[in-house]
Amino acid sequence: MAAPTIEVREVTKSFGTAQVLKGVSLDILAGKINFIIGRSGEGKSVLLKILTGLYRPDSGSVNYGQLNLAKAKTREINKLRRRMGLLFQEGALFDSMTVGENVIFPLWFHNLAKPAEANKKALDILGELGMARYFNLSVALLSTGEKKRVALARALIVDPEVVFFDEPTTGLDPLLGSQVDELIVHAQKVSQATVVVVSHDMAATLSLADRVTLLRLGQVVLSGSPDQFRKSPDREVVNFLSGGELA
Amino acid sequence: MNLILAMVAALGRFGLNAVFHLGRYGMLTSKAVLGFFTPPIRLRNYFKQMETVGVDSLFVVILTGLFTGGVFTLQIIYGFSRFSAESMVGPTVATAMTRELGPVLTALMVTGRVGSAMAAELSSMKVSEQMDALTVMAADPVKYLITPRILAGIVMLPLLTAISDAIGVIGGFFVAIGRGLDPGQFTGRITDIVVMGDVFNGLIKAAFFGFIISSVGCYMGFYTQGGASGVGRSTTQAVVISYVSILVSDFMMTAIMF
Ligand SMILES: Nc1ncnc2c1ncn2[C@@H]1O[C@H](COP(=O)(O)OP(=O)(O)OP(=O)(O)O)[C@@H](O)[C@H]1O
Ligand SMILES: [Mg+2]
User: Fold this and answer.
1) A39-76: b or e for each residue (b if 16 or more CB lie within 10 Å)?
2) B144 interaction partners in chain A (CB closer than 8 Å)
3) What ipTM was reported for this prediction?
4) What is the pTM of this model?
5) Which of the residues A144, A184, B15, B196 has an alpha carbon 20 to 30 A from that of A210?
6) How far apart are CA A198 and CA A203, in angstroms?
7) Positions of chain A with pLDDT lower than 50, given as ranges
8) Which chain B residues are Cβ-neighbours of A110 within 8 angstroms?
């Protein structure tokens, strides 16, 4: 099945009195690498949670083809989720389990592979991330960057058709960061996945993205190709690219 | 006048709050119970919880049973011997253990050990987004986390209680002998007086307490909010609410059963 385009239309989301998203509309291009950028606290992580059905929008729609996540039943969303991956900003690893158990979890839970196969697959992905030797270690003992890589492996192990990365390289050293970037590009190529990356790394954004979306004050400032971003006269965009944004 | 209004308002708030929590608790536990019947069933998960609830609590339960039976015997031996009713010491200890002390004290101990741990574990999973991670992987957190815990509570509490009953009687036995009773005097009439119904009803109580311990622990953990301090709060609340529910429901079940 081909990866779907995701149409986000006029999505709003508030927590208490704070309105975080104020009518966000964008298209996530199918089979492409989509970057979402914006300053800290602008609602990027919230948007990813809406795209994965973890939060329901207060209004607006999120359409995967015919399926509108804002209205869909959990059972329908779950069907979609079986071909979905999400790397949480903080990893969200199961800290009572080992590295290996974490990575294998989706395969194990849904009976998608025999134990030996699953182990091998997990070791392969962890190997690419330099984490294979920690296979039997409890994740509670890992450093932040190590946790991030394990979480990345867990998001990728099901060969997702749609995969979301919340700041995959934040907290990694530059060398590892570019390795992770390569892995994301590679994963996208192999399974023609739709990839959504939230990032603070402008260089990576402009070089890897097919489509970039800038959020500001709960709305989309610009959604377009990296070239459109480089050429945009919009002050917000210029400010943002010229490094008003650091971490 | 204002004071009265304020009191009525506070009472109303309390009532609304209680209804809200009871409703949410009811929905969560029924969802968890339905989880027994929907695939995929992950047995490893169930066994692990049974181990945590049952095997890991064994030591405290044995210790509690032993000393409870012992001290109870100490207390009654004194009174009973004044009426030359020494032969009633054993049966009385056995009745008290199986009907009341075994189930209730085991449940209270397990609440402290296991109910609090469930609340703490689930709430820390909640605040660190591990629950969301489960959801995104299409693994229903209720079914994956709560269903096995509730089953473990219902199955393991009667087993622990049976052990506690037995150990309590054994503890009583040694104390009685220490105080000069004949072994035969202690055991002689136990089987005449304690009927299977006593034991059985005690175990039913225990199963219900097991349900309370896990469901309350899970409920408090599942709906935690607000970081590490939220974890601490839910843990304490889980213990307090379980204690009260166990004591109240014990009274009601006893009134109905015996
Ligand atoms: N569950 C929640 N309850 C209340 N407020 C929330 C919740 N989740 C997010 N928020 C609020 O929404 C706003 C946006 O948060 P979000 O995590 O999406 O920011 P972000 O763009 O990802 O920032 P960063 O780049 O720092 O990760 C924040 O002000 C945050 O406090
Ligand atoms: Mg974020």
Assistant:
1) eeebbbbbbbbbbbbbbebeebebbbeebebbebeeeb
2) 109
3) 0.90
4) 0.86
5) A144
6) 13
7) 1, 245-247
8) 40, 138-139
